[in-house]
Amino acid sequence: MSLPSFLLEILVCPECHSALTESGQGEEHELRCTGETCGLVYPVREGIPVLLVDEARRPS
Prior knowledge:
Blueprint: H1 5-10, E1 20-23, E2 30-33, E3 41-45, E4 48-49
Antiparallel strand pairs: 1-2, 2-3, 3-4
């Protein structure tokens, strides 16, 4: 399930305040920080973005 475009326009990374982009599908749906120095990946659970730095992972 994709997030509404208006939501992606206002959501930012809580760590560095850069824009977020969607990636993955279904259980692997996530939001990726576009910041060059940050790059955290936030999960989306049941259609709700979990924008907690403690829940994010560093990209591999």
